[in-house]
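User: I've been trying to design a sequence by hand for this structure and keep getting stuck. Would you show me what you'd pick, starting by listing the structure so we're on the same page?

Assistant: Good idea, let's start from the same input. This is the structure you sent:
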């Protein structure tokens, strides 16, 4: 069934700005089941992890509706460097190289829940060391998830009261016909984490009074930063006063401590990306893929391992082997 016009406006799916070979050593593939042994490429979510050796917290970033991982990479890289945090960029279904057709609020939220499970269950980062950061449409996802569990902090950049409230500014009473999505004004009341609201008073798309009202509705520890010169799509890196300085000050009040991060090797397996399979057909339909998805007949470990260095090298360096028909296993 065709999605409604509002969903198409909320998630317009801009052209991808990266591919499976981008961000070497930082692009991850997370199965929705969190089980790499049974996962199919079309069920995996691309993420970008920017690690920081001296990190004291773990930031999960939910980007705006006209961004993808490539478009927000520079901003998140600066957050990593300035804030001294591990930063994980979440991709939405249909965005960038993430499998999926037209995205909607439910699909984006479900995808993001998987990501937070990955952070907690696989990376072993506790919720009280995790800070959710959302920008524009991403604030709806971040607030919804922060209302479901307690995290170390919630940071909202140019948030809106709700989609219905936002639409009503443009179409008036007809907004009553629009199904509600991302009711931040309701969800913020259930957020227990400390909150930082960042908004530009020159925002022509989402007026800053949305942040003001959310700030007033928030019942947890809260901070509000309004910048007179900041607009909805202002460069948050070019002017540190827009975001970096408030974020650094916010973190001082959280009392987070340094911790190490262990990322499983299977998360870097590029064969979990449908585009990798499409452009490397010699790896499709071959023998059983037992170690790092390397065919058993070509595997340095003979398929008897679950992550040997030799098989990892085949993936990490884009090496692939053509198997003669006579050597293929059949089931």
């Amino acid at each position: 069934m065709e999605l409604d016009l509002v969903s198409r406006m909320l998630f317009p799916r801009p052209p991808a700005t990266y591919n499976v070979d981008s961000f070497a050593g930082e692009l991850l593939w997370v199965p929705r089941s969190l089980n790499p042994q049974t996962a199919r490429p079309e069920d995996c979510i691309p993420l970008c992890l920017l690690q920081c050796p001296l990190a004291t917290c773990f930031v999960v970033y939910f980007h705006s509706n006209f961004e993808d991982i490539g478009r927000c990479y520079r901003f998140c890289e600066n957050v990593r460097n300035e804030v001294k945090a591990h930063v994980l960029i979440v991709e939405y279904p249909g965005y960038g190289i993430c499998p999926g057709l037209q995205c909607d609020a439910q699909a984006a939220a479900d995808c993001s829940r998987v990501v937070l499970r990955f952070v907690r269950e696989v990376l072993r980062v506790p919720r009280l060391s995790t800070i959710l950061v959302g920008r524009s449409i991403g604030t709806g996802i971040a607030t919804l998830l922060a209302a479901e569990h307690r995290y170390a902090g919630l940071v909202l950049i140019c948030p809106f009261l709700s989609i219905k409230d936002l639409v009503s500014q443009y179409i008036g009473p007809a907004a009553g016909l629009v199904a509600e999505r991302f009711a931040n004004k309701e969800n913020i009341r259930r957020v227990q984490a400390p909150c930082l609201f960042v908004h530009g008073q020159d925002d022509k798309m989402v007026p800053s009074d949305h942040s003001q009202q959310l700030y007033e509705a928030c019942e947890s520890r809260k901070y509000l930063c309004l910048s007179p010169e900041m607009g909805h799509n202002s460069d948050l890196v070019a002017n540190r006063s827009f975001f970096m300085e408030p974020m650094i000050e916010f973190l001082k009040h959280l009392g987070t401590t340094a911790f190490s991060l262990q990322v499983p090797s299977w998360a870097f397996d590029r064969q979990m990306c449908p585009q990798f399979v499409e452009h490397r057909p010699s790896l499709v339909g071959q023998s059983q893929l037992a170690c790092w998805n390397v065919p058993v007949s070509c595997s340095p470990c003979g398929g008897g391992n679950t992550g040997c260095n030799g098989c990892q090298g085949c993936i990490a360096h884009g090496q692939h082997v053509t198997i003669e028909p006579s050597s293929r296993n059949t089931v």
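That's my pick for every position. To get oriented when you compare it with your attempt: The mean pLDDT is 84. The chain has two domains: 5-252, 283-327.
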